Amino acid sequence: MANITFPFAAVIGQEKAKNALIWNIINPKIGGVLISGEKGTAKSTLVRGLAGIAPWIKIINLPLNISEDMLIGSIDFEHAVKHGEKRFEPGLLYYANGGAIYVDEVNLLSDHIAKSLLEAASSGECIVEREGLSYRHEARFFLIGSMNPEEGGLRPQLLDRFGLFVEAEGEHDLRKRAEIARRRLEYEKSPSLFEGKWLAETKKLAVSIERARNTLLRVEVTENAMRLAASFAQESNCAGHRAEIAIIETAKAITAFDSRTVLSIDDISEAAKYALPHRARQQEENRQQQSPPDPELEPDASEADSNSQERRQESEPAENSRPERESSDPEDIESGKQDISENGNSEASEAEQEAPEQIFDPAEAFEVSSWLKETRGAIVKKGSGKRSLVTTGSKHGRYVRYTLPKGSDISDIALGATLRAAAANTKIRHANGMAVSISEDDIRIKIRERRTGNTIVFVVDASGSMGARRQMSAVKGAILSLLNDAYRKRDKVSLIAFRKESAELLLGITRSVDLAEKQLSVLPTGGLTPLAAGIDMAYDIVKAAQIKDKDLLPVIVLVTDGRATYSDNSPDAFADALRAASRIGASKYKAVVIDSDRNFVRLQLAEKLAEAMNADCYQIEDLHAASVLAAVALSL
Amino acid sequence: MNQTRHIYPFTAIVGQERMKLALILNIINPSLGGVLIRGEKGTAKSTAVRSLANLLPERSQVLGCVFSCDPNIPELACESCLEAMSSDEGAQIISSKMRVIDLPVSATEDRVVGTLDIEQAIKKGEKKFEPGILAQANRNILYVDEINLLDDHVVDILLDSAAMGINFIEREGISYTHPAQFTLVGTMNPEEGDLRPQLIDRFGLVVDVQGESDTALRTEVIKRRLEFEKSPDEFVSSYAQDELALSEKIVNAAKLLPEVEYDARMLEAAAEISVEFGVDGHRADITMLKTAMAIAAYSERKQAVVGDLHQAAGYVLPHRMRKRPFEDSVISMEYLENRVSGILNQ
User: Fold this and answer.
1) From A158's CA, which of A86, A251, A409, A606 has a CA 20 to 30 Å away?
2) Fold that domain B10-56+97-209 belongs to in CATH
3) Backbone φ, ψ for residue A100 (5° rounding)
4) Domain boundaries, chain A
């Protein structure tokens, strides 16, 4: 299939993405680029357009549905059957050697495939030890990824693999917008005519890139420049030394593209803008565990490193106070907050210890919400991504690799792997007229990964008793951090509020955490407390959802002070609530109760509810997100 | 089984004008990006899609090709068709109708993208690709009922193919690439959950349907349905005239489309509307203009006018606007109309 792509040179705007791609072609040592941005911003158009301006670069498209054996290679099945020989059939990594791998929607890549990809990327070779094959080959490539952060984040290890990071945004200037649309329409009318029209521009760009590649060899890097790069990396607390290497290599490409051979300070700071954003946000963690200088690093660089460590000490106080002062800076809030949600498996950090005092401050709740809105907050994915790997008998989910069957339950056969196993043995068996004879030992079954997380149903008490403003904002703040966690873990959420005389389903089960957040932020309070109605509704929703999806893992999070004041069914509202709660308890749905009772004399009603629901109960003081998150995580 | 199954005529569908037009526009310009139909059950969604495919005249395709390759566009043909086309005899060509390929919500990934042909593998020890639903969907309509309930990873595959027009397969020892250019028609009931933002943006147009509220129209719906079920032959032939006229109108519009012009004012207006509504990216502007041009072609005009853009906005914007809290996921058309008119009448 001959394909004409939209010419790179004809893309308007997106200067950062264009720069990053061009620099990577000039100098593949930069280590690739991740383009993050809202939908419809020419992300993949640019990547595909690279073929026009750099035809010598091999760009291999990695489809999301790739299975592991196709990535790293396996036995050539046909050859095995016909000649009875084991021959290695290379996978995609082999073909990518010396070029680039492009993953569109890289944040949706299966964890397992991402791991194999990372291994090859970091070692520069692909090692295959499987199916009785032992093979290794060089696999040097750089990664180009594009993603829409609305769809979930990226695991930090993978994020760090990208030399550069850029954000793509829609154009706001009306005239430019109109021109973008005009060019697209012109292109669609006749792709070949359009391509021809832009041929001169494309050639021009290709020539200057070619020239820059030659110039690159002569670009000198001074010690000063290295020092500056190192201190940039240090100041933003990047893990390891990949950041400064990326800065230097990028600066070299910038210099070369500008037809110069001497690196300037401006080149370094320009490069840092691209090389640091996705690494800088791991700040808080690294402060704890100062990474020792890498012994393998060249003497020059480590010298620069220690230099900047001194410098850093001077600048530390200023840095420390920044998160508190500039609450508008999304990155700082992000990094501080991330730590809190990470608490389950990381050491206690400063930010976390301060959290309990701050949490009831309404401003805190606001901060959390503004930070949640920041799309950048979703770029880093913590933990394994999905909370629970569902491996039921269902054939749903993405086939990522295969294994030997356990017991006699053989339902989801991995055809390719089974055939390869059989092919290797067929020669010595009687093949009864078939080319391949499959015996029971050959059977391999599929391991599938399903990216569905949990379904968290929030049931929020919005009655008058919660109306004390500070109380509600504390609750909102806590739920928001839970929501944000749900967002990263690709959980689905649902939001139920009960007040006055009924429960209201504010948000049916959806993956749109964004919507839940919006609903929550405008949730009014006041009126009676129809607690039972709220719990019943949660039960109904979970039950209905489970009929649709058997693999569903529901968690009900009930936030209330337990002071039920209204029930349709019974004069004793609390008794009715208990009845509803015990129905959930009997159903074995997982549940967590968050007691928002802040009165001086505590009635411990929420605890009774929790008991009936067979759930853990947490005080609102615990709502400093870390422990609740841990609690929710535990109950999953 | 007696004779061929009768398909309810497209022109006999009562009401649902916006849905019908959206579907027609996608036939006129298949690159519009499909239609997402949101609404309750029993609103003739499926009937409309199937009857529209049935109404269109036959088109030529390579005989026996699972991808229904177009013999006139070798750039988009699959490998075997290319081979056949360049051979001395040339490819054998047949005429057939556009088909509606169903993608059931329960479909597994293997069936969607295609996989290893197990029979060939075992009998002959050969690796052959067994095409899946995406292969069949090429040049046809891919119909996904309840698309919001589709498994995540299947949605990813759909996105990949829809964006590139190509299906890449890397599985079960098979590396294969084939054309997958289809018109995606999805239906959903918004109450059962949203569609992922990335997928919803891929749909060029969105239509929110409701059952007819006018009693006279409702009665007419029932009357026609009963008539059709009683004597399908008669019913279908009584609409043959209308069907033919519409079919011709659509074919002519598709022919006229490349000649449709738009002016600079329209470009600016599209940009203005998109900015005003705070949409992400640029797909809205572009689709709005393309839709407006298709509307112009359907109205037998060579010049798209502001009114066309106005109409197009109603299809292109509802699912792309940033929603406000407590606003229904379905934005009122009236509100949209007012704001678009405001911009267009400046």
Assistant:
1) A251
2) Rossmann fold (3.40.50)
3) -130, 150
4) 8-170+186-205, 218-325, 398-449, 455-634
